[in-house]
Amino acid sequence: MPNSSALRDALQQSPNNLSLLLLYGRACLEELHLDEAREVFARALDIDPDQTDAHLGIAKVLFMEGNTSGAAVRAERVLFLEPDNASAHLLLSRVHLSEGDRAKAVEHFDRAAQIDGTMSDPALERELGRTARDARKTAPAPTPEPASPEPAPPPGNEGDEFFDDFDDPPYDWRPETFYAPGDPERNAVTFADVGGMEELKEEIRLKITYPLQFPDLYKAYGRKTGGGILIYGPPGCGKTLILRAVAGEVPCNYLAVGLHEIFDPYFGSTERNLHQIFETARANAPCVLVFDDLDSLAQDRRQIRESQMRNLVNQFLHEMDGIRADNQRILVIGATNQPWALDPAFRRPGRFDQAIFVPPPDAPARAQIIELLAKDKPIADFDAAALIEATNGFSGADLKWVFDRAAELALSAAIHTGQPVPITLELLLAVTATHKPTTAEWFEGVRTHAQQAAPDAFFNEVRKFLAAPSPNTKKDR
Ligand SMILES: Nc1ncnc2c1ncn2[C@@H]1O[C@H](COP(=O)(O)OP(=O)(O)OP(=O)(O)O)[C@@H](O)[C@H]1O
Ligand SMILES: [Mg+2]
User: Fold this and answer.
1) How much distance in Å is there from the Cα of 212 to the middle of ligand 1?
2) 30-39, 76-85, 319-328, 429-438: which range is least confident on average?
3) How many angstroms is it from 240 CA to the middle of ligand 2?
4) Cis (ω within 30 of 0) for the bond into 49?
5) Which atom, in ligand 1's list, is nearest to the CA of 397?
6) What local confidence, expressed as pLDDT, does residue 18 receive?
7) How far is ligand 1, taken at its centre, from the CA of residue 274, in Å?
8) Measured between alpha carbons, how far is 42 from 57 in angstroms, rounded to an integer?
9) Is the pLDDT of residue 41 over 90?
10) What angle do CA 455, 456, 458 make, to 5 degrees?
11) Best mutation site among 191, 237, 259, 337 for ligand 1 pocket (most ligand atoms within 8 Å of CB)
């Protein structure tokens, strides 16, 4: 192959010569000039958006950069355009191998060998423990993972795995929950309704409330507004509650996104919706943008075989990138009870760089929650200490269940006796004794994940919590 500098000279004479562009791109790839290669292949795609060699070139660049997920999306697109493209199958084989899916790697390798009788790839063959000749002896398999019948994404984004420039006019779509300051609906719940979580409350104030109250101070200290906070922990411990309370608490716009609002069966539309949500937040900055049950969206891309889902996660990562100057006054808060299911890329600096563990409430937090739950109920005057003690390890939702159940029993007694029957400490303790905290199962699960995960700040807090001698951990349950 001619070397890249000779080809570059030739290209200067005829910059739009597609074959020359492809040759030059391949030369750049061989010489590991990845940025240049990507740009050249993108130029080729400007001329012909369905040029499979150019798509494949970009896929290889992405793969070499370690972006296996991006490479897979690109290679799948090649197979959609050209199902018998042996090179795309070969690349997908490498992608799957590097992601630890040997069976899929072999499937694609065999397919490549069957399509191209001359194909050989000694390095891959060694790693798979299988030669191209072995593969050809196997009965030709149907194309594995047939590329989905999706139309190509909108043009103009060929070099990237995400979209930035949607052609549509400024959009007129709003998620279900958008509150401007002063909206009477939004103050229904505030931090005062959430027991415990002092660290998290303060962190939210530091990132969005105080900067708006004391802008000069923030400027003087060179601190920025916004960022990304991920809250995680066992179910029923108030993650959703605090997300709702943020609306009543922060003096700026508030936007909560239910993931069902984003998903769209049409290719590219889900990414577009997500982009539009971030655009709305930017247009309405300062703004808090909230994603509850994030795990359903931000799944670990390695678990996602479907290219559409990978695209969505890539889009999310792109929108959250801290280097984007336009994200400066946006605070993104995500919540999940399955932190292990999230793509690790979400936790890199500039995205959800801060992860806050929300454990089951400790004794002071339970005292607060009990007080909140007792408010406005026919409750006999009681000293809560015994109940606080008896509900060690209970989540806020467990405590709520205890109060609801006790209220039901007292109500039933009142109906049958015709007398008002108050909720007593004895009744609450009796109900508590019948209930096993729902957080126990979560801790069992997370213990396994924490043991398997590499040293990672993310699980350290959970590990600390599990190892703590405090009876609150309920380790021996
Ligand atoms: N810290 C708390 N203070 C007051 N009430 C709480 C608290 N934690 C939980 N609750 C009660 O439990 C209910 C359920 O909590 P919530 O839905 O916020 O849990 P979650 O952490 O979002 O759970 P999941 O992980 O299952 O989504 C709340 O609506 C509230 O009534
Ligand atoms: Mg929740």
Assistant:
1) 28
2) 319-328
3) 4
4) no
5) 12
6) 87
7) 26
8) 9
9) yes
10) 145
11) 237
Contact (Cβ atoms closer than 8 angstroms) between residue 290 and residue 256? yes
Residues in CB range of 163: below 8 A, 6 or more apart: 153, 154, 157, 268, 271, 272, 275, 315
With 0-12 / 13-18 / 19 or more C-beta atoms within 10 angstroms meaning exposed / middle / buried, residue 109 is: buried
Take atom 5 of ligand 1 and give the residue whose Cα is closest. Answer: 396
Indicate which atom in ligand 1 lies nearest the CA of residue 234: 25
Q: How far apart are CA 55 and CA 78, in angstroms?
A: 7
CATH number for the region 363-433 comes to 1.10.8.60
Question: Which residues are near ligand 2, the ion (C-beta closer than 5 Å)?
Answer: 239-240
* Ligand 1 pocket, mutate which of 232, 240, 373 (most atoms under 8 A from CB): 240
CATH of domain 4-137: 1.25.40.10
The domain ranges of the chain are: 4-137, 177-357, 363-433, 439-473
192 Cα–ligand 2 center, Å: 18
Full-model pTM: 0.65
Distance (Å, whole) CA 200 – CA 191:
10
Burial (0-12, 13-18, 19+ Cβ within 10 Å), 17: middle
- Specify whether the CB–CB gap between 288 and 246 falls below 8 A: yes
Q: How far apart are CA 284 and CA 104, in angstroms?
A: 45
Class of domain 177-357: alpha beta
Terminal alpha carbon distance of the chain: 67
> For 248-272, what is each residue's pLDDT tens digit?
999 899 999 877 777 766 666 778 8
Ligand 1 lining (C-beta closer than 6 Å): 194-196, 235-241, 337, 361, 369, 372, 396-397, 400
230 beta partners: 334, 355
Mean pLDDT of the chain: 81
Helix (H, G, I), strand (E, B) or coil at 204: helix
Give the per-residue pLDDT at 265.
Answer: 63
State how far the Cα of 276 lies from the Cα of 266, in Å rounded to an integer. Answer: 16
Distant-in-sequence contacts of 423-429, Cβ < 8 A, 24+ apart = 423/377, 423/378, 423/379, 423/380, 424/379, 424/380, 424/382, 425/380, 425/382, 425/383, 425/386, 425/387, 428/382, 428/387, 428/402, 428/403, 429/386, 429/387, 429/390
